Amino acid sequence: MIAIVGRPNVGKSTLLNALLGQKVSITSRKPQTTRHRIMGIDTHENRQAIYVDTPGLHIEEKRAINRFMNRAASSSIADVGLVLFVVEGTRWTDDDQMVLTKIIQSNVDCWLIVNKSDNVKDKEILLPHLKWLGEQHAFNKIMPISAKNGKNVTQLRDMVNEILPESEFYFPDDYITDRSSRFMAAEIIREKLMRFTGDELPYSVTVEIEQFMLAENGVYRINGLILVERDSQKSMVIGKGGQRLKTIGAEARKDMEHLFDTKVFLELWVKVKSGWADDERALRSLGYGQDN
After folding, report:
1. Is 66 labeled as ligand-binding?
2. Domain 2-162 belongs to what architecture?
């Protein structure tokens, strides 16, 4: 297995989707979009690469949900044969250093993936920074890429496949992820929430699928419950005249129909559940902590 690790918002999920050639991990411009460990399965000829997309590792653990995400990411490093450590251009933060420390402690092979390198306009800055990065650890490889634009992604995929041993497949060759359709539906709704709401909300919202049923006519009937922590957040999700919730539902339904390759009937509700993100029992009931 290959773990994709790094601090929040460096493009780990975008990289996983690019490596697979299709979307299995939700993305947004906001940090900590990924909350669960998600496997992406790339079967090519007689080799199968199993990538593990992880939540962004971060020093500050204000709430229980942050601790759960850090545990899920940290445990992934110890469970794999190769780590792809993703950093962002010429930026290096305390969180990056913390991730590197965990990698060094795990004594696992590590490739440094410098994402968003195309955003660095002054290449005279990039080259010395790459040299400096190489001095921080004995990385097996250092590779600048752009996951969003596809630069060097195919080369990275080929390099991973070259080091994989020929063996029996762990998953059937038509699998692209280990996650259930129910889980993917909840993640799609959460992605649309993050894209269509303000900066405050994403850290106080989660989604629970209350019904996931395939009807006799081949239509998926899905009921999603959106949990927020305050009444003001509920109003933010619903929007004026319910318009924002309609937009979130319509965009989520389109993605689900593309993913499931069938019609989807989606209904969404919003409920206030105060303190859910700092309640370990509530988090476990919502599926957090199962990755640890």
Report:
1. no
2. 3-Layer(aba) Sandwich (3.40)
Q: Is 140 annotated as a binding residue?
A: no
Binding residue per annotation — 55? yes
The number of C-alpha atoms within 13 Å of 57 and in the hemisphere containing its C-beta is 26
Can you tell me the distance from the alpha carbon of 190 to that of 100, in angstroms, rounded to the nearest whole number?
29
Alpha carbons 37 and 251: distance in angstroms, whole number: 24
Nearest CA to 54 out of 101, 100, 10 is that of: 10
37 is in an annotated binding site: no
DSSP codes joined into one string, 226-281: EEESSHHHHHHHH-GGGHHHHHHHHHHHHHHHHHHTS-EEEEEEEEE-TTGGG-HH
Q: Is 199 marked as binding a ligand?
A: no
**Is 8 flagged in the annotation as binding?**
yes
Q: Is 273 annotated as a binding residue?
A: no
70 annotated among ligand-binding-site residues: no
272 annotated to bind ligand = no
Identify each DSSP E strand in 38-80 by its residue range.
Answer: 38-44, 47-53
- Domain extent listing, the chain: 2-162, 181-286
Is 291 annotated in a binding site? The answer is no
- 10-residue averages of pLDDT along the chain (292 residues): 89 92 71 67 89 69 58 67 93 92 90 92 85 94 94 95 86 86 91 81 80 92 92 90 95 94 95 75 62 52
Domains 2-162 and 181-286 are alike in CATH topology: no
Fold designation for 181-286: GMP Synthetase; Chain A, domain 3 (3.30.300)
